[in-house]
Amino acid sequence: MTDVAFDVVVVGAGRAGVAAAYRLAAEGIDVALVERAKQPGMKNVTGGVLYGSILADLVPEFPDGAPLERHVVEHNIKLLHGDAEVSIGYRDLELRDEPNYTLMLGKFDRWFVERAVEQGVAFLSETSVRDVTQEPDGVVVHTDRQNGDIECQAVVGADGVNTTVGRKTGIQRTMRNEDMALSVKKVIDVGRNEINQRFNLNSDEGAAYIYTGFPEGAPTIGYFLYTFDEYISVGAVGGLETLSWLGDEGYDESGTPLYSLLERFMELDTVRPYVQGDDIEEYQGILVPEHSYDTLPDRQDRRVALVGDAAGLVLNKGYTFRGLDYGIKSGLVAAEAAIACTDDGNWDKFGQRYDSELEDSYVLRDMKQHRHLPQFLKNERMYGAYPGIATETLRSMYSADTDAAGLTWRQAYRAFRRSDAGVIDLLKDGFRGLRSL
Ligand SMILES: Cc1cc2nc3c(=O)[nH]c(=O)nc-3n(C[C@H](O)[C@H](O)[C@H](O)COP(=O)(O)OP(=O)(O)OC[C@H]3O[C@@H](n4cnc5c(N)ncnc54)[C@H](O)[C@@H]3O)c2cc1C
Description:
Layout: E1 6-11, H1 15-26, E2 31-34, E3 49-51, H2 53-56, E4 71-81, E5 84-91, E6 100-102, H3 105-119, E7 122-124, E8 129-135, E9 138-143, E10 149-157, H4 164-168, E11 180-189, H5 192-199, E12 205-212, E13 221-227, E14 231-239, H6 240-249, H7 258-267, H8 272-275, E15 280-289, E16 300-301, E17 304-306, E18 315-316, E19 321-322, H9 324-344, H10 350-359, H11 362-369, H12 373-376, H13 385-398, H14 408-418, H15 423-436
Parallel strand pairs: 1-2, 1-10, 2-7, 4-12, 10-17
Antiparallel strand pairs: 3-6, 4-5, 8-9, 9-10, 11-14, 11-15, 12-13, 13-14, 16-17, 18-19
């Protein structure tokens, strides 16, 4: 295959794929970016906050020239328990020095692809990749276009959680329920001023909210709420294992799909004031990889490398999601591996080079450091007993009606004794929490 059309074909124009293509084109390498959607971002879903320093290092027009929503200066974690809510809020104007923004992928991905095309990327939209075959001296990408086979030296699979590249090349075989979550999300048109009032924000400031504890005791079910310029994004994420358990046993004796949990969450007295509004701009659902470092799937085979969600590179830290920047970083690592192959002509080493460089990157270091976190977040006590203890303790501190006699630690101890958690559980969970976070 001496006469390849491109050195590298990148499949999927999410941020992971565009970052890879951008970096390769900037280095003068022939690269095609293949995307099934008519417009970049049309088929993509996120929450979400982009932790953007990785992009600021790559694209000179980021952040100032990019279509971003709000600069995130506030994070909130909310534990729900019955009618109560215990919050930990963090607002810090020094966060303005970091390029962390909420974004809408419809606008952002289009902008990012335009920047990549300026670097020399050949962008093929409305082109679905159906198969990828590795030949002894190259790779063929089979698309749904007439005469649509593209020959190249190497392929970057950036085609998201249901990766065709990963499945067709045999790099990935099965998805396990325990490594996957489902997410549904609504974007509601609320208006800029109303958002600023509801969330107590100034001008372009943004806030992020993460909720757990509803339904009480159901592990790995969480909710998020992000402020965009004119819209709010509110959604639910549920581990597939828990969802099938809720479905089998029937929460409220009927089985509860995630979209219905989201509706009920939005009706909670503590949540409704933030999310009210009938003007639904988008409604989306998608699978989210929730691997720990130890269960990450294979991500390379000789001349093919998987990046971003296709490689399962997402970490739900409980208090925030990391996936957007992990995808960008892994795309850049794949690009560096391809640049090294162009230099020495040894394309058969592409996959291995990518793999070992990714292992040294902050993405896998981060996932390795938090390797116990996914298991820790499956603990039912985090969603029932502990929010309950926190609520009861605070009620004893602030209510005139409760038995408020005694020191606060005594109240907390009484609340603990009334809960389902034992002392051994508390010690174990405390240790696991420290080790995971
Ligand atoms: C509800 C939700 C909230 C989240 N919140 C956050 C957050 O706050 N912060 C954060 O950092 N991360 C968050 N994440 C994770 C983050 O959104 C993902 O990790 C990230 O979007 C993955 O990017 P990607 O480029 O790998 O894949 P994608 O964005 O999924 O892009 C894949 C692209 O490949 C294309 N494609 C697929 N198949 C083919 C094919 N056969 N041929 C051609 N093209 C194809 C698709 O159309 C798409 O454009 C969230 C995820 C969800 C679902």
